[in-house]
Amino acid sequence: MKFEIISFQTKQITNMKEFYTQKLNLELMIDEQDRFSVKVGDTELIFKETAAANNPIYHFAINIPHNKMNEAKAWIKKLIDLNIVDGEDEVFFESWNANAIYFTDPAGNIVEFIARHNLNNRIEAPFHSNHLLNISEVGVIASEVIPFAKKMNGLGLGNWRNGNEGLTPIGDEEGLFIIVKNERRWYFSDQLAAFYPVEATIRNFGKICFHRLDDFIFEPFS
């Protein structure tokens, strides 16, 4: 599953645009007063300004070449502090065969770089922001994870790993919806998961709009 477009909301449109285009040096694709987008490998990442009272906070992960975690870590640490838990700034997920690091953007979103060693995406060039491959995880909040995951399964999207009521991943290593329980603490963060609208366009499949808690609208490609 490939995410072609991911759209989030933000109350800090100016700071976010500066961060993603100037600090992370990502290519600016849309530049409008109330929204902007950047190129994250094969995915277009859109931030739309919102007037909502609460500050939206999301979690998303970006695939990097599986042999470039050390270089990617050194690169990002020159730009921003990594999130640290129990004195560690990196984790190896044995069951997922992947290394990951986390940082927080100006809006408070928890951003993850993940090197998935099952994927054949090795590169030899020195790591740069151009080597961010795609957005591969998007957090989606549900009040009851398993029933919501089954509702998404009904679209033809299967679970990637056996899930539970705390977290269930749907899709594959190229693109996963991480369904998490409302108010569950995000990994490598002090933030509690809360629902905010998300739109995801999936290659050769369709668009899913998570417009309110425990509900979504699916627009299949004809």
Automatic annotation (TrEMBL):
<protein>
    <recommendedName>
        <fullName>VOC domain-containing protein</fullName>
    </recommendedName>
</protein>
<feature type="domain" description="VOC">
    <location>
        <begin position="2"/>
        <end position="116"/>
    </location>
</feature>
<dbReference type="InterPro" id="IPR029068">
    <property type="entry name" value="Glyas_Bleomycin-R_OHBP_Dase"/>
</dbReference>
<dbReference type="InterPro" id="IPR037523">
    <property type="entry name" value="VOC_core"/>
</dbReference>
